[in-house]
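Reading a protein record of the kind used here takes only a little practice. Think of the row as the fold of the chain written in a discrete alphabet. A record is reproduced here so that you can trace the correspondence yourselves:
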Amino acid sequence: MTELSRRSRLLRRTAYVCGGLLVLAVLAGGLLYARLDSNIRTDEATARALRADHGSRPAKAGKAQNILLLGTDSQAGWGSTRADTTMLLHLSADRRSASMTSIPRDLMVDIPACLTAEGNRTAAEYAQFNWAYERAGASCTIRTFEKMSGIRVDHHLVVDFSGFMKVTDAVGGVEVDVPATVHESVDDPDYGVTLRPGRQLLSGKEALVFVRTRLGVSDGSDLQRIERQKQFMQDLSRKVIDAGTLTSPTRLYPVLDAVTSSLTADDGMDSPAELYSLLSGARSLPPQAIRTVTLPATEHPDYIGRYEPVEDEARALFKALREDRPLPRHLYNAYDKDGHRDRPYFEKS
């Protein structure tokens, strides 16, 4: 199997798993459905903020769906919550193709003035992308993405990063190939974890370190971490399918409970039935109909450790998404499938 086929299977597997889990939850009915439905939190604060700024948002175009997925992380010593993982799930209007685009958290962007939950207005600034969530939550991240891309976000899902830990434990651990030593040491002596290179079964605690840790791994970049997150999602999806979780009620419920308890969603996606309705069409897509990409970015010349978009390729990518057309065939990615540094963009012919 080619690398493209393996990568393109990520979204199809993930949608299959999510769709299967959600439809079985719907069929279960009664108290089970009510419990799972109550787990998902409705993001009313974001809805209010977006309504207040509706005049500055891009217009809705066509029947394609754009869902912004945010992975948030509350880490000891930060004193705030950050969205360190952002992906745009694009479902074509005819549901015959889909794509997942990762946005680097360290990408330098124009963050607009945003309305906070307390009713205050932040100052517009040029800063790294993940600061938007820290400034004013999901609504500010959505508006920052829309300002950068010109793409209207139809729905959003916020997933607590601890959800990786809960779901991983619920399926009995996930086997992954760790490409390089991953070490995270924090003030709590019971939390420090070191993962050695090689294929191994990760517990929930270890999985959280694998998808979250950046500093001290390879070159410490966010782009390299994005590749590990993609790998983990593919391995998790494979584990759920291969273990027969979808057909075993005793295995299914803990996974459903872990998934839904980690979600905050807008009012159009805040129930298992609504999530299943939106995602079900992606389950049967063939590999060649799905793209998993990272927004082309390279080192920023003025900010050490930060990135700027590769302008021509970023414009082409966003234009294709806005117009619901196939993505450009070739998009620059600084890392190969093993997470090793490729040649800088300006050296590529």
